[in-house]
Amino acid sequence: MIVSILYDYIGPGDYRSMLDQLYDENGYVLENPPYPPSKDYLLGTDRDARDNLLLVLDGLK
């Protein structure tokens, strides 16, 4: 609960923004949303490519 409240002040302000497709260094599409859990997105993403962990933290309030 405390992390949820403090996240508005210390976390990134754009966590609700949607991500595009993931590209490699040659410009080829690697993946489309939703992304599975990984080291970048611990709980994965929703179909709009928003980080589920950050959405849960915000929703705890």
Describe the 3D structure.
- The protein is of the alpha+beta class.
- The protein contains two helices and two strands.
- It has helices at 2-10, 52-59, and strands at residues 22-23, 29-31.
- Strands 1-2 form a two-stranded antiparallel ribbon.
- Strand 1 and strand 2 form a beta hairpin.
- The longest helix has 9 residues, at 2-10.
- The model has no long low-confidence stretch (mean pLDDT 77).
Descriptors:
two-stranded antiparallel ribbon, 8% strand, 2 strands, 61 residues
Uncertain ranges: none
Order of helices and strands: HEEH
Sum up the overall morphology in one term.
Answer: elongated
- Secondary structure: number of strands: 2
Strand-helix topology:
Elements: H1 2-10, E1 22-23, E2 29-31, H2 52-59
Antiparallel strand pairs: 1-2
Brief write-up:
The protein has 61 residues and is of the alpha+beta class. It contains two helices and two strands. A hairpin with a 5-residue loop joins strand 1 (22-23) and strand 2 (29-31).
